Amino acid sequence: MRVMVLSHGHPELGAGGAERAAYSIFQRLKADPRVEQAIFVARSEYVGIGHSACFGSFRGRPDEILVCPPPFDRFTCQSLNHDLLAQLIDELVRFFRPDVVHIHHYIFWGLDILEMFRRAGVRVVLTLHEYAAICTNLGLMVKSGKGLCYAASPAECSQCFPSMSAGKFFVRESIYKMFFENVDIFVSPSAFLKERYVDWGLPAERIEVIENVMDQDVLDRSRIPVIARPRQSEDRRLILAFFGQVNPFKGVDVLLEACASLPKRMRKKLEVRIHGENKHFRDGEFAQKIERLLGETRDVVRMMGGYRNQDVINLMRASDWIVVPSIWWENSPIVIQEARMAGRPIICADIGGMIEKIDRNLDLPFSAGSAGALADIIRSLVEGSSQTDPEAVSRFPEARQEARQALDAENYHRHFALYGHPEHKGGANCHVNNGKGSTLSEVAC
Q1: Is the fold of 2-215+409-432 the same as that of 218-398?
Q2: What share of the chain is helix, strand, coil (3-state, %, to 5)?
Q3: Which fold has domain 218-398?
């Protein structure tokens, strides 16, 4: 079997969760003897490729291909140069001859690729990472007034974006559903996300709920025995850690507001570490709010900056609790999986795919978006009045780590089962010149 994994970015060039999920399954496929060839194809700007050609190999790796597709319409997600995109997809198919393509996002590529791969006789598997088809507000299902959106309709979407009529949103929905007919099977990493897409109109039988597989480096590092954190004492602060992008939807401001509300005496027993950054939100109202809150909490909050995926396990193990305060319907935050592998319990918002993935005997949920509710949990942990059993916390690492390892292996095999076992395809390597520079044959060679 020949499998192509297609992503909207390479994790080494942009560390989003969907990119990492795509690359993780590519790693597994490469190590699977049942797979004749696994190819990772990631969208990139020309600067990432390093020259003006549409194709390039990432760091000289012949099985990791960067592609710069033409621009796409951000409202309908259709390509603005259908013919050029068709030529690029045709070259990928003819050169690598995949039996199946596992697409981890169509954004930046355009929905057109679903039809192009299907017409080429390639089985199409699509993982849904958020609600982009349902919601044009970055796929978050958050209303323009910042409140959570519980259901979408053309009329309601038009109220969030008054410059666009309900009719335009109806057409947008129709376009998405038309292209989705080319998908053989959808993968949803959470039951919650599947429910949203079924309510929107996708047949339930076409969506399999399978959690994303994890990065191989993370798995390897998690096998190192967990060293339990020493008990909290007068001279040791309780350490909470946030991991992820610092943006308006991940709830970093909720965490900072919770810290700001704590009395000074309590802050002396607490340290909060923010691991992550986001250059796209260094200006504007949100950035100003974060700067103000950081000034108010400088005695308790430390900005740790960005981090490499390979280091996340060790960084998590240096903390006592992992905080996931997102204010949108998270689908399947990879940070929850990583916390499991690191053997650390979680404090998280009680919505979306987050709440279905926690251990209710140990993890601590709070009302999403409520700095007061989060502050109450932090206060109880600092004071030692939390109902969480300290002995259970100390026993947590090894048991949860082993369970997570087993579950990850199961998740991979369930993904593989969706690919089917098509007969090997024939075909010659392609030497099409796309008019932009190197052909794929030149890149791979």
Answers
A1: yes
A2: 40, 15, 45
A3: Rossmann fold (3.40.50)
Q: What does the pLDDT look like over 10-65, one tens digit per residue?
A: 988 876 788 989 999 999 999 999 999 999 999 999 988 888 889 999 999 999 99
CATH superfamily of 2-215+409-432: Glycogen Phosphorylase B; (3.40.50.2000)
Q: What is the CA radius of gyration of the chain?
A: 23
Helices 17-30, 390-419: axis angle to 10 degrees equals: 70
CA distances from 261 to 266, 279, 312 (A): 10, 27, 29
**Strand ranges (E), 142-279:** 185-188, 207-209, 238-243, 270-275
pLDDT in tens, 275-286: 998 766 667 888
CB 281: neighbour CB atoms within 10 A?
17
Q: What is each CA distance from 31 to 11, 193, 214, 410, in whole angstroms?
A: 19, 30, 14, 15
List the domain boundaries for the chain. 2-215+409-432, 218-398
* Lookup: tokens for 28: 């597994």
Between helix 334-342 and helix 17-30 the angle, nearest 10°, is 60
* pLDDT over threshold 60, residue 391: no
Confidence of residue 342 (pLDDT cuts 50, 70, 90): confident
With b for 16 or more beta-carbon neighbours within 10 A and e for fewer, the 29-68 pattern comes to bbeeeebeebbbbbbbeeebbeeebbbbbbeeeebbbbbb
Q: So what's the pLDDT on residue 401?
A: 63
* Three state DSSP letters for 36-101: CEEEEEEECCHHHHCCCCCEEEHHHCCCEEEECCCCECCCCCCECCHHHHHHHHHHHHHHHCCCEE
Tell me which of 37-46, 290-299, 373-382, 414-423 is least confident.
414-423
The residue assigned the tokens 């193990």 is 317
192-230 pLDDT, tens digit per residue, is: 999 999 999 999 999 999 999 987 766 666 666 555 555
- Closest C-alpha to 106, from 3, 22, 204: 22
Residues contacting 120, CB < 8 A, separation 6+:
89, 90, 93
**Dist. CA 96–CA 67, nearest whole Å:** 14
Sheet-wide strand order for 346-349: 301-305, 270-275, 238-243, 321-324, 346-349, 364-366
Structure token digits, residue 77 = 């997600």
Q: With contact defined as beta carbons under 8 Å apart, do 321 and 346 qualify?
A: yes
